[in-house]
Amino acid sequence: MEDKTQYIFALLGLLASLYFIYWKADPLYNIPAIGPSAPILSYLGAYRYYYHGRQVLREGYRKYKVFRVPMLDRWVVVVSGADMNEELRKLPDTHVSLAQAVNEFIHSKYTVAPDITDHPIHTAVIRGPLTRNLNLLFPDVVDEMKTAFPEVMPLPTHDGEWVAISVRNTMAYIVSRVSNRVFVGLPLCRDPKFLDTLVEYALSVSKARDILNVMPGRVRGIVGNVLPWVKRATRHASVCIQPMAQERLQRLQNAGDGHGDKPHDYLTWLIEETQKAKLSPDFVVQGILASNPLPFTQRAIITHALFNLAAHTQYMQPLREEVEDIIKEHGWTYNAINEMWKLDSFMRESQRLGVNSGVSLIRKALLDITLSDGTYIPKGTLIVAAAFATHTDKTYYENAEAFVPFRFYDMRAENGTLGMQFVNTSKDYPAFGHGKHACPGRFFVAHELKAMMAYIILHYDVKLEDGASRPEDVWVWHDIIPANTKVLFRKRQSKVE
Ligand code: HEM
Ligand SMILES: *[C@@H]1O[C@H](CO)[C@@H](O)[C@H](O)[C@H]1NC(C)=O
Ligand SMILES: *[C@@H]1O[C@H](CO)[C@@H](O)[C@H](O)[C@H]1NC(C)=O
């Protein structure tokens, strides 16, 4: 009996020392961890990061230039402050990869589209022809928005009656319709079956990611391959998109042979990219899916903005005056949207505090790297910037925790300070990333979201439910999700003098 106990203790001792050696040998061991670092115990830290990501990141940001936080399957290395952000974004593509990091965080291969990480044809289109042609595409954005709002948010027949609207879901639907007006055009962008497929698909990305995140590496591939959602979305989307793609292909060929004009739209640009990459034209379906707004992008940003407007109704009047004057002068043009400096500042400030993720500039180390402060980052590590903590650091922003909607307007108008527009990235504003890989979709996003906000500002009054305060954002790991709270809307009552 006694002997057996001894063996058990000996075995436990051996296991403990093996763990200790393993843990000491972990090359990340020298980087300070937030929470317990030992094996098993680190799961407690992961639990805390899951529920209290904001506090964990803030704690690390205050204490260290470089630190690590535990997720279920790995440590993630986080850098603090604008200068480290700058260093991270300057690391060359030979040393780090954004696409590989995204793939590790959301398992794009199984959640977004199987081949898009290796062949990001949509990135080339967004960076090139989409952004170049935004002013030509903008009338479509406006037309779709003007059609979608009255349909999706009908005004009550009784004047002055308030209706409670689930902002997040409603905006998701309108953003999807408006974006797809540009991606696939009429009539498909209004087809309820197509839109349902996209909404379901967007939600499934987070769902599938959450499932795959708790799988050990080897099992992940097997489970990833049997998850039904991407396959179903691809099948449904193919039925709608393939005939259109065939037609574009035909027209491209005809134009090449000197018969007719070359089509000029998103689908055609995607096809041209597949041709450059020597891929089958079927590939465009993946390109369309990968271009579509995910839950943590446009819908989140405009929901934050609407919560802020409803919680600070005193800003409605100055915004209305600006939007109304500019629309009166220019109409709903691309340039009109660029003239709306106050609205632009309002959106930038909303995104400063309601950035879509607490971390940005996410990168995977492709080689061993040593950072300027001497921190050694082994190959394979995920490195990120503490975006939210940077955005709320009083070194960079006066009154950093407060929502000051016209702070960027004031800098731009009174001082001529450059780089303060919604689309501008910087080392202390990495919401859209920064540098070479900064979000190429942000010019499209900024015009789309500002147009939608301008429409709301002109047509509706908004307020929170009686006695409510601005809904708290929900943090899941480092993702920041606006609450699914309803906001009251009514037909606009006052006219601006
Ligand atoms: C509010 C909405 C959005 C936000 C907050 C956002 C944010 C970001 C961020 C943080 C990055 C990484 C940048 C870096 O690490 O330097 C990124 C990359 C990217 N975004 Fe966006 N994005 C948004 C919407 C969109 C949309 C609508 C599109 C497509 C039309 C898009 C296309 C891309 C692409 C293709 C990349 C990868 C760029 C590369 O690989 O170099 N994004 N985005
Ligand atoms: C104007 O610019 C200076 C330096 O460029 C800066 O210190 C100051 O805070 C700015 N003022 C405003 C209102 O942004
Ligand atoms: C800010 O964005 C505008 C619009 O794209 C661009 O013209 C300007 O050069 C940017 N400024 C900085 C400092 O990045």
TrEMBL record:
<dbReference type="InterPro" id="IPR001128">
    <property type="entry name" value="Cyt_P450"/>
</dbReference>
<keyword id="KW-0408">Iron</keyword>
<dbReference type="GO" id="GO:0020037">
    <property type="term" value="F:heme binding"/>
</dbReference>
<dbReference type="InterPro" id="IPR002403">
    <property type="entry name" value="Cyt_P450_E_grp-IV"/>
</dbReference>
<keyword id="KW-0812">Transmembrane</keyword>
<dbReference type="InterPro" id="IPR017972">
    <property type="entry name" value="Cyt_P450_CS"/>
</dbReference>
<dbReference type="GO" id="GO:0005506">
    <property type="term" value="F:iron ion binding"/>
</dbReference>
<dbReference type="InterPro" id="IPR036396">
    <property type="entry name" value="Cyt_P450_sf"/>
</dbReference>
<keyword id="KW-0349">Heme</keyword>
<feature type="binding site" description="axial binding residue">
    <location>
        <position position="439"/>
    </location>
    <ligand>
        <name>heme</name>
    </ligand>
</feature>
<keyword id="KW-1133">Transmembrane helix</keyword>
<keyword id="KW-0560">Oxidoreductase</keyword>
<dbReference type="GO" id="GO:0016705">
    <property type="term" value="F:oxidoreductase activity, acting on paired donors, with incorporation or reduction of molecular oxygen"/>
</dbReference>
<keyword id="KW-0479">Metal-binding</keyword>
<protein>
    <recommendedName>
        <fullName>Cytochrome P450</fullName>
    </recommendedName>
</protein>
<keyword id="KW-0503">Monooxygenase</keyword>
<feature type="transmembrane region" description="Helical">
    <location>
        <begin position="7"/>
        <end position="25"/>
    </location>
</feature>
<comment type="similarity">
    <text>Belongs to the cytochrome P450 family.</text>
</comment>
<keyword id="KW-0472">Membrane</keyword>
<comment type="pathway">
    <text>Secondary metabolite biosynthesis.</text>
</comment>
<dbReference type="GO" id="GO:0004497">
    <property type="term" value="F:monooxygenase activity"/>
</dbReference>
<dbReference type="Pfam" id="PF00067">
    <property type="entry name" value="p450"/>
</dbReference>
